Predict the 3D structure of the following.
Amino acid sequence: MPDVTVVVWNVETFGDAWPAVRGGDYTPICRFMAQALYEVKADVFIMMELRRGGAQYLPTLKAALEAQPGAAAQPAVPAGPGVPAQSAVPAHVWNYDYIPGSVLPPFGDPVGPASFDYTQQGHGEGYAVLWRNQPDFTVLRTRNAFSRNIVGGESKIGLVLQGRTPTTNVPRPLWYQAPNFDPAAPPAAWTRLGFPAATPPLQGQARWNLSRRPCYVVLGLNRPGPPERRLLPIVVHHSTSPNPLRNPRSTPWSVQLAAYSAQLYQVDDTSHGATTMVTVEQALAAGDFNIDHNEATSWQREAYDYFTNDFGPGGANDGGANLPTTWVDSANAPDNHTAVRLSRWHGPKLPPEQITAANVDAYRWLAIDNLFIRDLPTVNPPAPYRGPVYNVLSGLQAGGFLVDTPAKQAVIRSFRDAVLAALGAPHAGGGGTNYPYIGPANTPCRTRKRKTDGTYSFSAPVIGNLMSYTDYMADLQLGHFTSARRAAEFYVNSISDHLPLVYRFTV
């Protein structure tokens, strides 16, 4: 039976100007991402942290996906001795759509794409979806065309605007409560759903506009049966970041409210001309939730229960979304660590401890990205299947799966070209005209300031957080990394501080 592979990836600040580490036109990072996605045979890719400037690079990513060796058309192969015949395979065609992550004021229902934007309260972020045309699924249009890259006259990605109605939870004041969902008696109408802003004026305040919301995409699976068996909603949320000094409840409430998203319970079957709500049997919820799944004693971790609990437990208003399978399970720690870092923080008055371990897994921490599943036949094939957490770091050292061909190595070398272009013409004292001063770790910097003792402090390095600029540039020239530290430096500086999630299921 055919499989579909979904990749969810927080690509940090995708679209912000980082010419030295991502290339002035984002070609290096798009080529790298395309390689990584084809390595796991991705069919659907949903991106978090799309910034305002990122939309212009989505065509670059689409082109890079279609240029992958696995995307080329394959001719039919006749049967031979001991070899079965193979049908021709058309070239892969990718499409994309995107949407800003927040609703704009005034307080009212959105009326078009201009009702959404990348807001400061939503940390300037949105979402994108890219998918490969193939016979096993289609991407349904949204009822309202609110997205920014209409495909064939249709929007393919939307923001969650409605859900279960949250109210104050008197017996459990750390949480909201909402009427339980009953598949046999779904609500006649869904109500507006608010989300906490990144820095709400009131602790944990859920608001209709300006805050960052989840996005959703609905797949129409090519399988027999009624719509409730064929429609698959995928809800992806980048929750607010923790800020325990100002609003410690904002993050867990952001996660809980995402579990109230209407699309996890019912979707509009837009193949019909009029609104036709379908109670779906299967659903996915995923995202960067900013709560460590491995912190079993943390009260915030309980937010995940609102995804995994079934529709009815806990009383009349405390049920979950009935997504019982946790993909990045704490039983898999530390393999479930999804964030990447270069140093350990030991407090505000102590310098960070640089990590120099020889194992790439030492640079991973926190199980804060996750995916929750209802009623899908999960595929767990043998290696080299790279899920649940796609450890991209492990493929960057010599012989790794992301640097094991000349074409893949050329992509890594293109990042060196980006650094050299950013430096400008060679400077007599080292570096380049744009970064004329040589700072710590031999890294060219844009500025320096003389201190009272006659030495200098340096700022604005061309690349940050390097142990050795010379060794780093040498590895880029090689097309692979000769140490785990430099592999992590490359990933954090040029790609993201999060690893992707990979989920594959049988249609």
